[in-house]
Amino acid sequence: MMRSGNRGQKYSSREATFFGALAVLLCAGVFAQEHGPTLAERAFEKLRQQPPPHSDSFEFVLIGDTRSAEPVVLPEVFRQSIREWNMLRPAFVIDAGDLVLGGSAEGLDPQWQEFENTVAECGPPFIPVVGNHDVSDPATEKIYVDRVGPLTFAFSYGNSRFIALNSEEQGAVDSLSDHQVAWLKEELEWTTATNIFLFMHKPYFDGDWDRQWANVAAVIKGHPVKVVFGSHWHLYRYAGEREGVQYLVSGGGGADMHTPEEEGGFFHYLYVRVRGDQVDWSVVRPGSILPEDAVTRERINEIHALRDGMYTDPVEVTLGDSVERTVQLRLKNPYPVPLASTVMWQVPEGWSVSPVKSAYSAEPGEEVALPLTISASAAQVRFPAPEFSTTIPIARHGGPVTITKRLDLIPVVSAGHVPSPVVVDGDLGEWQSARAIPLRYGWDFDIADTADLKSQVRLMWDEQYLYLAVETEDDEFYQPYGGDIVWSADNVQLFLDRWEWGLSLTPKGAEVFLYKAPEREAEVINQAVQLAVKRDGRRSVYEAAFPASEVAPLQLREGEYFRLSLAMNDLDPSVLERPRHWAELTPGAGSGDANYPRFKVILGARAAG
Questions:
Q1: 301's torsion region: left (phi>0), alpha (psi -120 to 50) or beta?
Q2: What is the pTM of this model?
């Protein structure tokens, strides 16, 4: 038996005597001369150099099935996991097998080379466990032992002992051989660790217990084995606790998934915590762990400078008209070096943009203009509008930046003047001459269920008031709230220049809530705005009169204009599969998008006479 290490860290190679020629090669010096240290030996050497600060408090990572469906290229999700481990800094990482796609011995060299190159980027020690794709016959097994590491091994870290088993033994069928179980028994009896962890690729414990696992269960009984980890199934599954031992299957390291996500078929790794004799773990989905400099003020300023320097000429179109015109897409280079890239347009049905792809270049500080022709029929001048995207490869803070913005489409409507004040009573008899502007079922919802929700808005004005009426058909009215959370149920959310209002029928009656206002107190119930809400079956009418003081600095006079959007929020608690949703005048109004477009509303002329 060979042991090496310090501060309680030990590496046992007795398994090499039992199960392979590694010990012979090591004694002869052949392996060291021809190939250098194995992947496992390099990991254990790194582990020896990094003893735990506290013997009973540390973390490690468990992952499995990191191979891809292609012979050489490893999955990006595995590479992402490595980047995250470099941030999390666990004591070590154990990969529970299926490291490469495998195949015959003569095709393995480039696969193992790619694997070694990839895990070389892993900061924590990376400890491999053999899987069925890694070995398939004596020749591939010899390559694994020579290049990757022993088929079974054990090591200590802190107060714990880690034992790797070989589920791919030649001659053993769907279970561990008596020979290997005897080795395990010796390891268990020898150690005095507080915690013991077992690792193997195929989770025999999750199959026929009596045939595949009972012999192992009998050996581990009475020892402080806390968790047995398996892989092989491309999923995550907590297989339960039995006789004080917890069993886990974790095979989400990158191999293709065939199991529904709700049944564990998702990419993941386990972040395991050891605290004394207590062990727990978290299931981590790669892509959610970010470095401390993921978002910096410099990065934000850079993105804003790029975004603000890219825009189209405004395209004002009277609602109901067609459009065909040439506009300029303007892009400014904020860098002290030349910038070159390409613009691509995404064109919704009904619109036409030419050209859809344009290359551009700009000198330091230069603004360039790219002409393009846009067109749409009267029926098709609507949102969503065409949008463009471009990637800036020379971004200085955090890598390339992709900017996506939409055509600056501004629908224009006119609010009619009324010669005498409107009576705010929820009756729309005075509104017959006002144009009804429909609200589209929210762009965030891939449905247009007008049986559920259908809304339209009208606008009028006089010198004292701006008038608004929203007419809604809704299959279920629900508004149990008041105050600042009325938006979470049936409610009109109005965006008027820098003002934001909530118009609701609460249990206490009609209520106007002011969310935002220029240079005045907000987040309050407003008493100055008149509101009446009238309900009749499925139909609700919200009629409001905003005094001139409540829309300042807008002046209520002919030719003045303001920017408007609106959302009709809807919550139907009796339909469980239907979450809160909304209809909206422009896309993004209901979802809180900070840069949503708005209508331009012009205060129309007084009637003649």
A1: alpha
A2: 0.65
Count the neighbouring beta carbons within 10 Å of the beta carbon of residue 594: 5
Q: Is the peptide bond before 125 cis (omega within 30 degrees of 0)?
A: no
Going by the DSSP 8-state scheme, the letter that residue 363 receives in this structure is: -
Q: Is the CA virtual torsion 24, 30, 32, 36 positive or negative? A: negative
Angle at 526 between CA 555 and CA 496, to 5 degrees: 40
Nearest of 171, 156, 131, 166 to residue 22 by alpha carbon = 166
Confidence of residue 482 (pLDDT cuts 50, 70, 90): very high
* 2.170.130.10, 3.30.565.10, 1.10.10.10, 2.60.40.10: CATH of 297-407: 2.60.40.10
Across 127-136, average pLDDT: 94
Please give the helix or strand (H or E) that residue 3 lies within, else none. none
Pick the CATH number of 11-284 from 3.30.300.30, 3.30.950.10, 3.40.50.1000, 3.60.21.10: 3.60.21.10
Domain assignments of the chain as residue spans, ordered by start: 11-284, 297-407, 412-603
Fold match between domain 11-284 and domain 297-407: no
Closest to 308 (Cα-Cα) out of 327, 333, 344: 333
Write down the CATH number for the domain with range 412-603: 2.60.40.1190
Look up tokens 């709230």; give the residue.
481
Contact 543, 428 (CB under 8 A): yes
Give the tens place of pLDDT for each residue, 327-381.
999 999 999 999 999 999 999 989 999 999 999 999 999 999 999 999 999 888 8
212, 243 contact by CB (below 8 A)? no
> Which H or E run includes 341?
strand 339-346
pLDDT at 316 over 80: yes
Torsion (CA) 74, 76, 79, 80 in degrees, nearest 10: -160
Q: How far is the C-alpha of 500 from the C-alpha of 523, rounded, in Å? A: 10
- Tokens 């409507």 correspond to what residue? 413
In whole angstroms, how far apart are CA 460 and each of 99, 323, 418, 543? 69, 26, 7, 11
Q: Which two tokens stand for residue 439?
A: 């609200």
State the Cα angle at 315 between 310 and 318, rounded to 5°. Answer: 160
Nearest Cα residue to 568 out of 497, 517, 492 = 492
